[in-house]
Amino acid sequence: LLSVKEINSQRETMDLEPVLGEDNGNDNFRPLKTIPVFSFHLLVSALISIVGVGMAVVFPENQRCEAYFLMLYLRVIFWVITLLFDHVIKYHHDKLRMNGFHDFHRATGVHKSVPLYLVSLWNTAIMAIQTLMQHYYGDNFGMHCIQSFFSPIVYVSTFSAVEFGILTVIHGTYIARVMRFNRARPLPDAMRGSFEGGSSVGLTQRNADVAELLEKQADLISFLQDHNLRLNQRLMQMNSEVRTITLPPS
Q: If we measure between CA atoms, which residue out of 117, 130, 98 comes closest to residue 219?
């Protein structure tokens, strides 16, 4: 009987540790798989910039209008890619938040939102400039396309190059953070004590943003509810195993 109790105690410890996050290795950690998505988006931006500069330099003057409109088509395609990119990144970060990593989710909020805003802003500016040129030049728009330095292909390529530079900084910073996060394999925020001060719902923090505090509370409640559900399931499984071991066969 003593050996059965010892076995049960050991099994309870082994079963509870992964749920409570007390194991040092954090075997339940799921890495954030967004680095390939960010790398692909940055690669597409680089290719568009290279194509724009190449067409501005290589294309003859009588084909500069064709190069300009081709760049506009590429800008539209890039916006669609950025929109899909934004949805994929939000999907992965929502899963990350549901797994309890709320601080990292908030810390990378700018990196997730800026690309779509930036590409949309750049395309809006290009569309506004195109409208002004078409209105101002009228039927003479084709003649201005063949100008060497002031042709539309030059300014579109310049816009794309500046955009690529900004995205390089944003994406590079994000990729470095995610690599450190995946390599560290941290425990969820509630397990690491980041909510210890927030267990009082954060009302004692001075100069704190109320909306941010409410969001942290909602995240913590959602995580603890999911955590309690997993604990209940594990306890029910352990109880059934204990009954199987301790009850004598009828």
A: 98
